[in-house]
Amino acid sequence: MKRLAHPIFWQLVSRSIRKDYLENLTGFAWLILQPLMLLSVYAFVFSTIFKARVPDSLDVGFVAYLAVAFWPWTAFSEAVLKAGGTVRANAALIGKVAFPSELLPLSMVVATFLMNMAGYAAVLVVLSLTGTDIHWLGVVAMLPVLVLLAVLAGAIGLVMSALQVFVRDVAQILPPLMTFWFFTTPILYSPTYLPDRLAEVIAWNPMAWFVGFVRAAALQGELHPGLAGIAIAVSALLLFWLGLRFFRRLSGHFEDFL
Question: Could you tell me which residue ranges the ABC transmembrane type-2 domain spans (predicted)?
Fold first, then answer.
């Protein structure tokens, strides 16, 4: 936590936001438009062609059901992918400025989540205005869960960014792995419609818990993390600690390979 108070950390966050979103003419608009286009494609394919259904207990349309889970995943996936390349992308900075290099992937995770959550808020407002009953107290209450999701993204980002210094193929392997993770997470479908054995396997996917929680909070106003939520929180914090140790162990050799 002390490292997050480092003066350069928030400068890196600010630089990432300006470079990726604000200095680009269409940057912030694209932040919302790109997920909206993907959402439209997925909604059409799965609701019209594959006839995906929403659980009977939820009185919402498929687009709302999909959108509420889609944006947190987008923030998580984009944060992991962007954080993974930060050390190589800032090789010159590492060689010239003395600062904790783990701030590079962590600042990218924070910047990505901040901007995507701004887009998420805009989408929730649009859903509310178009007739979806959004439980705003539930949305506020799920903010700590979204922070926990950012912690998990930070843990993975630390490991991937360190590995990419030594194994460049990680940059090509990571995107398809994230795509596979996306389709094995119940975002486009409800786990209640899966065969029992497959549903049991999917339940071990930590992202399935995050998706279920944000849907229950935003669409039903229910906040029941349960024992699974406690296990996920402890695991995410432990993974972050391990990822940080892994990154620091390798960081001493970065300059030799950059």
Answer: 26-250
pLDDT given for residue 54 in this prediction: 80
Of the segments 3-7, 24-28, 47-51, 232-236, which one has the largest average pLDDT value? 232-236
Three-state SS string across the chain, please? CCHHHCHHHHHHHHHHHHHHHHCCCCHHHHHHHHHHHHHHHHHHHHHHHCCCCCCCCCCCCHHHHHHHHHHHHHHHHHHHHHHHCHHHHCHHHHHHCCCCCCHHHHHHHHHHHHHHHHHHHHHHHHHHHCCCCCCHHHHHHCHHHHHHHHHHHHHHHHHHHHHHHHCCCHHHHHHHHHHHHHHCCCCCCCHHHCCHHHHHHHCCCHHHHHHHHHHHHHHHCCCCCHHHHHHHHHHHHHHHHHHHHHHHHHHCCHHHHC
Tens digits of residue pLDDT in 131-151:
889 999 999 999 999 999 999
Q: What is the mean pLDDT of residues 53-59?
A: 74
**Contact partners, residue 35, CB within 8 Å, separation at least 6:** 70, 71, 74, 119, 123
